[in-house]
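Input sequence (448 aa), recorded before submission:
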Amino acid sequence: MADARPFHWEYVPEPVQQEFFRIEGGKPLSGSVAISGAKNAALKMLAAATLTGERCRFTNVPEIEDVRVMAQTLTELGVVVERPEPNVYEVAAGDVEWQFVPLEAAAKMRASFMLLGPLLARCGRVIISNPGGDRIGRRPVNLHVEAMRTLGAQIEYRNGYYFATAPGRLRGAEIRFPFVSVMGTENAMLAATLADGHTVLRPAAQEPEVDDLIACLQKMGAEIERTYPDTIEIEGKKRLRGAEHRVIPDRIEAGTFVVAGAVSGGKITLTGAPCEHLGAFIETMGRAGVGVSCGKDTIEVDGSALEAEGFTAVDIETAAYPGLATDLQPPTSVLLTQAKGTSHVRETIFEDRLEWMSELRRMGASIDIKDSHTAVIKGRQRLHGADVEIGDLRAGASLILAALAATGTTTIHGAHHVHRGYENIEGKFLDLGARIERLAEGNDASSS
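Predicted structure, token format:
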């Protein structure tokens, strides 16, 4: 790091355009929708590209706001990021001029903290801000920091920034997490690929996006493998090479569209869909009476039971993979408002993830939020249009689902949250026959 360079951030972020969705519900969806690449895999691969000075090429990258922010952050660090065509990103980190990840980037996207491990391992120094992200509860980064310290890093926290150094190379070690952490696992993996010696991570997250990152790192020459379901082992290398990798499909987007087909009473086909990564979710849909059938890379959804025998109330509980993903709890909760009987929702991952349900109640849902982790949903309640506000990414997508199921017109403010993680979501819904438009606040002209 060049100490002579002023300690400031040169990138002026684009102002967030205040937008809203206007949706007229009550129309069954039909047709097919292509599932984009996984947000939670693509962001980590962009960070992984800083482990080498050679060019990395990533395909099937979702064109979403979080990817744009990560690419811009890398550019401001001196990394060359090119987009030769849609959904393709090429990253060359030959010179990382300035290992400083500022508050502006961190406040917009929690995944910016994924730069801690690779920059520390390759450059020996990094200054990185506390991360931001969705308001869904505390998501401390202490696990990441302690993992780096276990690998030999020296880290101080001052004025909202972590100042991390690695005298010489990081050293391989056994890292034992107190609980499963997806980003904690990934950050430690990235750092350990260039550490001196052998590293063992346990309990290691088992999410498909973690295994996709492992596959990418292997192409880059890393000696890394999952030796047991909850164990990842890495033999550090002195350098890695460039590689090309295709990002896996986004299982959260797929689950969102499965629920969309169901609650609209429609019939849709998801193409490029990762059915093998949705076991717990598909099982839940089956128990609720949603018709879901999986092909090689397709998912057929039949929501005709909505107006026939009706959906069935089920109890759900989120868990680390292979359990029901916390990001699929909000869409599933929308489905449960349209099921006969009483369902219980247990959110075990984030303590504030149920807060968005107050907006769902404004649309007519009967929901009793018992505490920060438990809600009781009584169905079937006919939803109706209302003015609602998006608080986070997954809640925003779920309010769109509720609006599709509702009678009348719903106005959903805070559309920018959804664009962080869903590529062209209104366009995909329009292609399925939804009556949806995206508008600028204070402007009645459609920008769809």
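Checked by second reader. Residues 176 and 202 are 5 Å apart (CA to CA).
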